[in-house]
Write the structure tokens for this entry.
Amino acid sequence: MVSKIVIAMAFDFGTTNIGIAVGQSITYTAQPITTIKNNYKIPILDKLIPLINIWSPNILIVGLPINMDCTEQSITIKARNFANLLNSKFNISVELHDERLTTKEAYLLLKNKCFKINKMKNNIVNQLSAVLILESWFRKKFFQNY
């Protein structure tokens, strides 16, 4: 039996920037796509329409920012609201996924590659965080019994 291929788009939600990555269940890998500014001049969902149309994901994954002790932060509610907006706008299944330490890991990965993190590179950090969120979701979704 052949399983349906999952095309997933992940979001590293932030109040300033949202990193976006896309991946698929053939290799269970993700690639960075872009970082969009969350500046409220153009509604954020309108900025996502071209990406949704190009990649045609069948699931959207939103990183859920929670503290190490599993308590929620003020941004946790905003991320949940963002996930609900995505679902209502695009009528695509949305899942929240624990994103603890993904930004820190993204910084470390880039630092190990000798990148100096500045304002321009922050966009790369947001995208890499989205990649880490999505690849972690793939592992949990498809390999949790291993």
Summary: DSSP finds four helices and five strands in the chain. The first strand starts at residue 7 and ends at 12. The CA atoms of residues 51 and 73 lie 28 Å apart.
